[in-house]
């Protein structure tokens, strides 16, 4: 089950000017939250960490993730690598003169594979970071992007109902909604953004659906962070005591 309050290794309160209390997504009760901090000015890091959190959250809601896009990309990439490797090997073993026609064919094949890989990434994947199917059979595809010097997480969500009808949603939210001022990822606001704005997710996780007027104040978030840190310390103490009893 997804934990709302994963343990945190360092109890304490964040600076008063932080936007959110920091904690990382965990999927098991005993999983430790990371204290890793991301440079808040590095859009690539902010996007990549948010992209990584998407499958963790959706899979915890029993979505069945599809890896087709990744599998095809890897197949094309490895095929191009094998062609290049074979070309090098037969040139090393047999010499260029006796293999020049094979080498020419390999170069053409390598170029085609790399071209196909580039087109696949640009046109087919098009920034897609998640594809999956809900327990009810509805499909979801999420593509993400950022713009230069704009700390906004742009999501394009494609929903496909069981009857084949498609619906596309576009959602843009600032990274500050789920990263604190020190660059630590905050789980609950990130999940609330998804559950509140994407019906298929909100239906599976209604406790994360919030009203438009609901917002986090700095004081409330500080208190939530302190509570999550205290809960983490208590969980670690209980876990340690349990291990001592077993010993």
Describe the structure.
- The two termini are 28 Å apart.
- The protein has 247 residues and is of the alpha+beta class.
- The protein is 49% helix and 15% strand.
- The chain has a five-stranded antiparallel sheet, covered by helices on one side.
- Strand 3 (139-147) and strand 4 (150-160) form a beta hairpin.
- Residues 1-34 have low confidence and may be disordered.
- What general form does the structure show? elongated
Please give the radius of gyration in angstroms.
Answer: 23 Å
Q: How many runs of DSSP E, i.e. beta strands? A: 5
Q: What ranges have pLDDT less than 50 throughout 5 or more consecutive residues?
A: 1-34
What is the percent of helical residues?
40-55%
**Which structural class fits the helix and strand makeup?**
alpha+beta
The major pleated sheet works out as: 5 strands, antiparallel
Provide a count of the helices. Answer: 6
Strand line-up across the major sheet: 1-2-3-4-5
End-to-end distance: 28 Å
Mean pLDDT: 78
List the helices and strands and how they pair.
Layout: H1 43-60, E1 64-65, H2 68-94, H3 96-125, E2 128-133, E3 139-147, E4 150-160, E5 166-174, H4 187-197, H5 199-204, H6 218-246
Antiparallel strand pairs: 1-2, 2-3, 3-4, 4-5
Quick recap:
The chain contains 6 helices and 5 strands. It has 247 residues and is an alpha+beta fold.
List keywords for this structure.
247 residues, alpha+beta, five-stranded antiparallel beta sheet, 5 strands, 49% helix, 15% strand, disordered N terminus, transmembrane, Spc2/SPCS2, endoplasmic reticulum
């Amino acid at each position: 089950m997804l934990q709302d309050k994963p343990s945190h290794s360092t109890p304490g309160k964040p600076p008063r000017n932080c936007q959110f209390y920091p904690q990382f997504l965990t999927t098991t009760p005993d999983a430790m939250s990371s204290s890793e901090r991301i440079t808040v000015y590095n859009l690539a890091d902010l996007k990549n960490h948010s992209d990584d959190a998407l499958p963790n959250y959706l899979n915890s809601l029993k979505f069945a993730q599809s890896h087709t896009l990744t599998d095809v990309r890897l197949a094309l990439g490895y095929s191009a690598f094998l062609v290049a490797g074979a070309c090098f090997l037969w040139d090393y073993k047999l010499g260029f003169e006796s293999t020049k026609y094979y080498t020419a064919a390999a170069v053409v094949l390598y170029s085609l594979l790399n071209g196909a890989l580039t087109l696949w990434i640009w046109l087919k994947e098009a920034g897609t970071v998640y594809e999956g199917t809900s327990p009810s059979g509805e499909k979801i595809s999420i593509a993400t992007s950022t713009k230069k010097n704009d700390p906004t997480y742009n999501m394009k969500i494609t929903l496909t109902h069981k009857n084949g009808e498609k619906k596309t949603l576009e959602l843009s939210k600032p990274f500050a909604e789920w990263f604190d001022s020190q660059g630590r990822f905050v789980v609950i606001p990130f999940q609330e953004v998804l559950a509140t704005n994407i019906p298929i997710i909100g239906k599976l996780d209604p406790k994360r659906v919030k009203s438009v007027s609901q917002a986090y104040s700095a004081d409330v978030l500080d208190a939530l962070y302190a509570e999550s840190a205290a809960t983490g310390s208590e969980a670690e103490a209980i876990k340690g005591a349990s291990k001592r009893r077993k010993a």
